UniProtKB/TrEMBL annotation:
The protein, known as: Inner membrane protein YrbG
Primary localization: membrane
Pfam hit, one: Na_Ca_ex
Domain Sodium/calcium exchanger membrane region positions: 3-139, 175-312
Gene Ontology biological process terms from the UniProt entry: intracellular calcium ion homeostasis
Entry annotated with the keyword Aminoacyl-tRNA synthetase: no
Subcellular location: Membrane
Membrane topology according to the record: Multi-pass membrane protein
Amino acid sequence: MLAAMVLGGLALLVAGGDLLVRGAVAVARRAGVSPLVIGLTLVGFGTSTPELLASVQAALMGSPDIAVGNVVGSNIANIMLILGLAALVSPVAADAPGVRRDLAVTGFATLAVVGLLIWGAVPRWVGGALLALLALYTLGTLIADRRDAAMARLREGEAELKDTREFAPGVWTGVGLTVLGLAGVMLGARFLVSGAVELASRWGVSESVIGVTVVAIGTSLPELVTALVAAAKKQSDVALGNVLGSNIFNVLGILGVTALVTPIAVPDEIAARDTWILAVSMVALAAAVLALRQIPRALGLALLAGYGVYVAGLAGGLG
């Protein structure tokens, strides 16, 4: 029964998130919103809806360990598990336009979350500041991308979009999908968090361990699928961009919204252990991007091995 609750919650989160993105994109297309804005906001941020709802639900239910663990664990999994697997499928290119910019923002966001974890709290005013930074990043990205030479190809895509718009779902269909998706994500978040709390109690482990493993990996499934599909299609730059965007939104968006809803107390366990795993993984990613301009298979294997040791340590009580 407990396993069904956790798995059912994960399934509702993933399926609901997919419907939410599809519906929102359909409405945006009918409204004439450009593919750039759709890709950056609705699709990019929409795939992080499971993490957002799970963290907010956990905080409201008095489980800050799961709320914080979900954000930190998702960012660790994005770098070590998802990019590691993607690099094994195909070396991940890191020379696309905007990668260094997004890497710098990801590094800043990681530094910010490490500082907050060591400080031990995320008050409401910090949540508001994080969301303001997210708005500035989004605006800056839109402006920078519009100045990029690749916008010529994007405009061709806009023309194709207009030609095929009659085949896209109608506005009311899009609204219906959005509402269904949002309901699924909200219900899934409640099932997942309730099941995770009970799971921690039955297994005799802390909620923070469940948060950085079961909840974090489960809510990162959309990013995992996207990265593997992109790597298989030899579009590894998409995998890297997806991970960088997700990590930025996890810190600035999810932690920001969660702190605005209710101030967060950071569990000592996460501050003492997972903070440094996140920092080391970020340094490894930055070094690969700046020095190698790619994530080779050897580094992908090393990231996966490191993640395996990390999870094994948590499972064995060695963390």
